[in-house]
Amino acid sequence: MDFKDFIKGIWSGIAFNFTLTSIAMVVYTRFFGINIVPVNGVIALFIMSLLLYLAGIVLCANRGLKRGELFVRHAIRLLLIIGIVLSTATYMGWLNWANPATVILFAIFIVVIYSVAMAVEFYETKKLTDKMTEKINERNRG
Length: 142
Hints:
Largest sheet: none
Shape: elongated
């Protein structure tokens, strides 16, 4: 991803992240029976959404990345995301560090969600690439 494209997509990326984190918050609060989310919680989610989007800057490159380089960048991004989400959850009072099992489970959920998102992105990119390849082949035949 080019840095200019990254900057162009900042507002849609933040809106997307904020929407998903808001949905996650609603599910989480309903699951654990929390009835009220304070205003500072919504602000914290917006800031978290911004930071999550900015964590994507790790993937920006001026050249094509090799598979290993891309893997390392995704690993760094995942670590940033885990840190951002755990920090926000701690701030919101959702996470008790005295119970390591809860923290580990929370981190596992983050990894699973990230993995599913990357799988969907891979599938969509592959579908687009196959479509473009087919059009190029049609153009070359005709």
